[in-house]
Design a protein that fits this description.
alpha/beta; 9-stranded mixed beta sheet; 7-stranded mixed beta sheet; 30 strands; flat; disordered N terminus
Amino acid sequence: MEKTPRNHPPRIHGRKVPGLHAHGLSVRNLAALLMTVFVFLAVGLFNFLGLFEYLEFKTYDFRARLLAGTTRPSDDIMVVLLNQDSIDWGYRERGWSWPWPRKAYAEFIDYMNLSGAKAAAFDVIFSEPSIYGPDDDDAFSRSSANFGRVIQTVFFSTQSGNSAVWPAALDTPLFTPQNFGALLPQFGGQTGAQFPIPALRDTAGVIGNVTVRPDSDGVIRRAKLFTLFDGKAAPGLSAASLLAVGADRNITYYEKDRAIQWEDYSIPVTKDGSSLLRFRGSIDAYTYIPYSIADILKSAERHARGEEPLYYPEDFAGKYVFFGYYAPGLFDICSTPIESVYPGMGVHITMLDNIIKQDFIRETPPAVVYLIILAAIILINVLLFYSTKIPVAVGGGVLVLMVLSGTGIFAYTAGYWVPIVAPIAAAVLSFLATTLYNYATEGRQRKFIKSAFSQYLSPAVIEQIIADPSQLKLGGEKREMTAIFTDIRSFSTISEALGDPAKLVELLNYYLTRMSNIILENHGTIDKYEGDAIIAFFGAPVHIPNHAALACRSAVLMKRAEVEINREVLAQGLITGKVMDAMVHKGILKSTGDPNPIYTRLGINTGDMVVGNMGTPNKMDYTIMGNAVNLAARLEGVNKQYNTGGILISEYTREKIGDEFIMRPLSRARVVGVNTPLRLYELLDIRDEAAPDLLDMITVWDRGFTAYANRDFPAALKLFKSIYQNNEQDRVAKLYLDRCERYIAAPPTDAQWDSGVDNLTEK
């Protein structure tokens, strides 16, 4: 084998690397090692400081939503709700106004007692005496005492409460924690408590705590088995149900397993003593079957009369029953991984469910997390440092990201929360760092950079960066360009009615991809996406003389594509019947058969703008700024005020596009934020591709608009009316037709006319 001479440095991909000998560590190997160490330390530090926490929470929530329906809820739990139908029934049949008398709950408890239910937990704090008098509270307390397994509720707080101590006479089951050591204080910190009234508190089988603390982003993902208050280990509402039927009060913490052992139950806990919950869904019909308390009270009546009840007593035999309010304005709302608006009672139900089925989610030990981070870095570095084929390196990197994401999902099904944001951040950082290293050291890696970043930046921007890396700095330049702003009509209504976040994302991605491709094909640059809106510009980074015409062509083609987009989203069910009903209800559409639920408005303006890298040295964005940009944004919204077909351009753009397009003039207007009146134009079509009747219409329009501008309103009315009679979908013609009729009836004075300028007060 031929050896490299001592006086010749080794070669890497045909280039000499000075300073290292063949028998030593190669530059590439050393760089790979240093890159691995650097990225691992950086990501490890960020992870330790909790900088990935928010994003990790969101990926955890995605997994929880995705897999919520893959496990069955416990058959031992039943939910009873006082909903609006129950309130209406109580008023109609029993004469009960709100709040209900507590004898109603006594009837409910008596039926649970008759049925042989294991326990009945109230997610309601009866902290004030009944408004119906002491006899009403006595009826409830007698039923509770007879049953013996009613769980009443206490709420602990650091700020409020009707007691700062545990009542001396209250002798309900409490936990006896053993071997908790330094973990025990994590269950305390509460200084005030809101207890039920003594009559209900003292006859309860157990007092259960409903206090649950959200994570730092306001989402409840976990709950604690008990809470320390005044030296007492008070069970949570879920654990109280088990204590009510005689479960052992002794619990032991095993640090090695990071779990609390309670009889045969093993309850994993995190460093703050809480347990990660496996949510299965809401407490509605498709997860835990809810029972109406009105139906249970009717069943009790019928059973007492010897008639067939709606629900037999044996339906509740051996069940843990939870009762709560579920009428609008009555139940507490919290945010959970599976729903942003979620009944608080569902958290306690989920906790008991997880205890019974023993399928909590466990946190991955930190050492394992750091091993995954290190593995992701090594895999990316091996692929990028040692693969000579760009597709293999990039494809391998994508595969690593997919494996990391898939691992997080698979681990969740097995009951583990494996963080994926930190490993993905490590992989991405390694990818970027290694790519930049290759760019700096290997001339032929320029193609690799183009391939890697073409997914994120405009090809023209990449070419300029390759030709002149100094452009990666703050600052910009002033040049004449054309900006385009788009927005979907009433998209908030669509998103609210659609409901399913996955479908909303799919719809947006489909729409934005089709529209963005049209802009890019016409040499435009996508500035940013703001929800359903697209902001783009023409004429940078590479100067294009006909930037205004290209922007207008893009707008026309986007409106044409809108027809096909609507047809496909309706066919694929991305726009549902519920969405169409909501749009009709709000007057956005005339009927559910309207073929155009998605309607895009576009504003286009040409002028001097500042374009370049804006931001900070650590975070830059290639974007546009200036008054001309703001005017384009305003014109998008002005479409609504003139009832246009969707495309509005300024007189400045009109001056640049010649006769290539068909457009019709509208009034001069002062838009919000711009004092100088400017002529508006509705862009209709590309002249060479327009239908003959559109050309005829424009001829009539020009005559009508000239008459209108000269205040010859009868002549203008006749011409606008002829346009509208030929096409009753032309709402612009209808707008000016109505104006002419109004001005004929009450001619405007010179001051009122103001040279035909419209002063617009809305954006």
